[in-house]
Amino acid sequence: MKKALILLGCPESPAQTPMALYASYKLKKAGYDVTVVSNPSAMRLLDVSDPEEVYVHSKTDIESCLENLNEGDFDLLLGFVHKDAAVAYFVTFYHILKTKSMALIFEKDATLLEDFEKQVAENTEAQIVSARAYHNPTPIRVNLDKAIASLED
Amino acid sequence: MSFCLETYLQQSDDYTILAKQTGFKDCAKLIEEKAKIIVYINPGEKILGARIIGLPPIPIGVDDEKGTVMMPYTKPCYGTAVVELPVDVEEIDKIKAVAIKK
């Protein structure tokens, strides 16, 4: 079974937790064994949102994951990018894993959104899936659906 | 025992924070402006017992005389900081050993 790693950022963005559950659900349907990596506060939001681990059953802490991560450990990296630090983490995971990667970039500020897109494009060959969004996950979901469908082609 | 950056920053007070809660690019620029010698490394490289987070090439400032390194330190919710801390010569040598060309 193919393995996917969903990398979450700071949980401050309201769209992150629902989109993490949704992305895990979609990738599982696309045949991936999914692991979500995040900091403890983002993980607590997932724990409360999915108490029976229906959507996410493999979660790992970002520090220990980074420590033990090696090239080729996953077939797909999906990174949630909505802060400057998230760009840096995504690029770092990309350079360690050297695998097919997708950056899900979302921000309410158009200038910041463009800056994050530019930084990811300049430093990786990852597929960029972006949407100007904050509370409303729909624009992100629509673009993610298209990107995941393209994986199955 | 090998050096652990995370533990060091929690338990010591002889390091200097030159910038905090800012963007990675600003931190990289600061290191390039202030460091005596700059060594560039790839993102994810393990130095001082930690994977270094950032955009390539990541500048690490080295001061052989003072025995210090100046480096970016990123956390998901707090952005990137620049810390300067004293380290052993062996640790500086390890950083130089993984250097890349800019």
Number of domains of chain A: 1
What is the residue-mean pLDDT of chain B, rounded to a whole number? 92
Number of strands of chain A: 6
Structural class of chain A: alpha/beta
Task: Give the SSE string of chain B.
Answer: HEHEEEEEEH
Can you tell me the overall shape of chain A? Answer: globular
| Strand segment count of chain B | 7
Structural account:
The complex is a heterodimer of chains A (153) and B (102). Chain A is an alpha/beta fold and 153 residues long. Chain A has one domain: MTH777-like (Rossmann fold), CATH 3.40.50. Chain A is 48% helix and 24% strand. Chain A has helices at residues 16-29, 40-49, 62-68, 84-97, 110-123, 138-152; strands at residues 2-7, 32-38, 59-61, 76-81, 100-107, 127-132. Chain A has a 6-stranded parallel sheet, with helices on both faces. In chain A, helix 1 crosses helix 2, helix 1 (16-29) packs parallel to helix 6 and helix 4 (84-97) packs parallel to helix 5. Chain A is globular. The mean pLDDT of chain A is 96. In chain B, the strands form 2 sheets. Chain B has a 5-stranded antiparallel sheet, sandwiched between helices. In chain B, strands 3-4 form a two-stranded antiparallel ribbon. Chain B is an alpha+beta fold. Chain B has helices spanning 5-11, 24-34, 89-97; strands spanning 16-22, 37-41, 46-47, 50-51, 58-63, 68-75, 79-86. Chain B has one domain. Classes of the chains: A alpha/beta (153), B alpha+beta (102). At the A-B interface, helix 3, helix 4 and helix 5 of A face loops of B.
